[in-house]
């Protein structure tokens, strides 16, 4: 063999055995540089991305990229970012957007088209997360976390009522909303306690939306855009929830108020259950009800009146890129590193409890760990099972703000005595008129 041929052979062998030799110098040459400004709220950015070490990991791999994190409350993001987009400003580069507001931001225009960049990850991310990121066949966001809905319950209340307390047994009892209704009747009869909180005067429809979601329903038809707020299915769903009011099985406390928190923290007068997303776990454990460790369990939510997957979504978040950014390569590198890498998502998950939308993380031992707060139950395993079954629904959308406002008022009218059909018909007509 000639020296020239031998040399070529050794180069080929090295490329196959040690691919890093051939690849990393190319990456270094094309690595992004410069500064990016990232907007988001404290709980997600400083308390999660920074505290987990993921931002430092990114800086270690991309030392020429400077990352400035600017903290805004979610409400401030939804005021200031649309203004920046419409004004054509180059800052911010990357923005954290809740799933409930994503379609509205996408429809506004001005985001960077990420279709080609996210294409390798489409099959790895919860399928139901992509529709709200998509407009006219193009994708404008990368999902971070999802909000799989479950039923949290107080084991001590169920025991006091003479009911089973283990998750599988409780899950069988509440497999349907009729079964859940019977359980709540028993709890009220045996203990005098309310089953859950469901405010009347200021109800903003969160529970109602979760029940719609598990049935694959929502506020409009995804194919035609037709408003479905007053559909037979939506009306029946609201009437079903109203039964808990009629039988005085739900307290009138409003979510995210002191009386609502007190229901969860109480040892002698607690509320029995809570239907909410997995992100609620960290709030219960850290500041709402830390003194109740060992008293909680988690099971599936009841199936809707038209069946369904016993799996719904509430919340979740994404990262988007300003279409006018001066540094799109660095902006995408940041998103890809933080959200599309298994290792990064697991670090974020470990510190926050936010369930990754990236399904390649679900086989990690983190999902099998028993949790003392839930009497040793591996709750994260439940969340991963639920999130994989969440159907696509049309709750969020480009007009979610208006639709949620109209439906919330309809629910309040229904609670005050109007029929569900009349209240939802008025809401639907209001939306139809506004969209003409």
Can you describe what's shown?
With 436 residues, the protein is α/β, with parallel strands linked by helices. It is built from 19 helices and 13 strands. Strands 2-1-3-12-6-13 form a six-stranded mixed β-sheet, sandwiched between helices. A three-stranded antiparallel β-sheet has the order 10-7-11.
For the structure shown, list the relevant keywords.
436 residues, alpha/beta, 6-stranded mixed beta sheet, 3-stranded antiparallel beta sheet, 12% strand, disordered N terminus
Largest sheet: 6 strands, mixed
The strand line-up of the biggest sheet is 2-1-3-12-6-13
- Helical fraction equals 40-55%
How many helical elements? 19
The global form is globular
Distance between the termini: 79 Å
Helix/strand/pairing category: alpha/beta
Strand content: 5-15%
Please mark out the parts with pLDDT under 50 across 5 or more consecutive residues, or reply none.
1-28
Number of strands: 13
* CA-atom Rg in angstroms: 24 Å
Mean model confidence by pLDDT: 93
